[in-house]
Write a structure and sequence with these properties.
With 136 residues, this protein is mainly alpha-helical. It contains 6 helices and no strands.
């Protein structure tokens, strides 16, 4: 399995390139790519050896790939009528992708500063874990 960190860097680079080809919603594309570029410093500062972090980074990659597809859609010229029909849809798509990028980054940041022990020998610890995540 390829390293999810390297995959994210590749998708970020692709988003940067797609931004330059955007014809429609250029400001939204630039803003979205600025947000995505903000992911890089966080990724550089976290450990790569944690399986949980790799899964989270892999999910982040999926969201950034969605952003990439959205930005690539903006590179196609369309008629004025179709622009009018889809403009609110694109706004919702941009907002949704931005929100998901922020959510995934918050989870990665939270888990970066929270160490989770797999030692369940303490009854108090087990009780606390069950209160927080009953399915775990």
């Amino acid at each position: 399995m390829p390293d999810p960190f390297d995959a994210v860097y590749g998708v970020i680079k692709s988003c940067k390139n797609a931004k330059d080809r955007a014809v429609q919603n250029k400001k939204r594309c630039v803003h979205l790519v600025d947000i995505i570029e903000g992911v890089e410093p966080t990724l550089e500062s976290i450990e790569r050896d944690s399986m949980m972090r790799q899964k989270q980074v892999s999910k982040l990659k999926d969201v950034i790939e969605e952003a990439q597809k959205l930005i690539q859609k903006q590179s196609k010229r369309s008629s004025f009528m179709s622009q009018m029909c889809f403009s609110s849809s694109f706004k919702e798509d941009f907002d949704w992708v931005e929100k998901r990028v922020f959510q995934h980054m918050e989870m990665i940041q939270f888990n970066r500063y929270t160490s989770v022990s797999t030692n369940n020998s303490s009854p108090i610890r087990t009780q606390k874990l069950n209160a927080v995540a009953p399915d775990a």
